Amino acid sequence: MSEARSLLTRMRRPLAAVALGGMLAVSLQGCFAVFAGGALATTFAATDRRTLGAQTEDKSIVVKGENRIPGVVAAGSHVNVTAFNRRVLLSGEVPDEASKAAAEREVKGIENVDTVYNELEIAPSSSFSSRSSDALTTSKVLASLVDDKTLYSSAFKVTTERGIVYMMGRVTQREGQLGAKIASGVSGVQKVVTLYEYISEEELKDYQRKPASENKSTS
């Protein structure tokens, strides 16, 4: 664990992209990653741009969503819940429109949820091999983001479903566009969908000037 955290503190240095990305995805899974039904959604907590309060709420939203959704969707559904700064992404597959709507309705009723992006597909549940491939794609995208010296990879949260990469995070327009461009060039990526919360360049500079303890207040 300490070795993994040490790597994170140097996240802006160039890395051997794919190999180290896979290592990070595996070694950090028990600390900061959520692996739900094959969708690997990872964010580095060390320099997270969310407040500690938002991070805690996001974890609670995911747990509640994963517990409640199976009770309102049809059998054979595969639904992943990803939360970033109180914004929730639903991805995966459900057998009918009723299940898709029910999953969204259930998550909207969870406390502290601001927005729900319903990206559920009406399709058979994905296979284990497909989910494993998606997890590998996510690790490669994250490694490529880490390898770029101009980006803070911790500002992004990445989830992959059926080769479609979903990118969340608190980023500037410049960071968001560059992140999407990098992701689109990774092998195995079929499409990139951006669900960013944008901040201005001035907000970014202000964030960088503040002490870490102030940026991570519980408000």
Automatic annotation (TrEMBL):
Keywords: Signal. This is BON domain-containing protein. PANTHER family: BON DOMAIN-CONTAINING PROTEIN, OUTER MEMBRANE LIPOPROTEIN DOLP. Residues 57-124, 133-203 form the BON domain. The keyword Signal applies. SMART domains: BON. The keyword Signal applies. Signal peptide: none annotated. InterPro entries: BON_dom, Lipoprotein_DolP, Transpt-assoc_nodulatn_dom_bac.
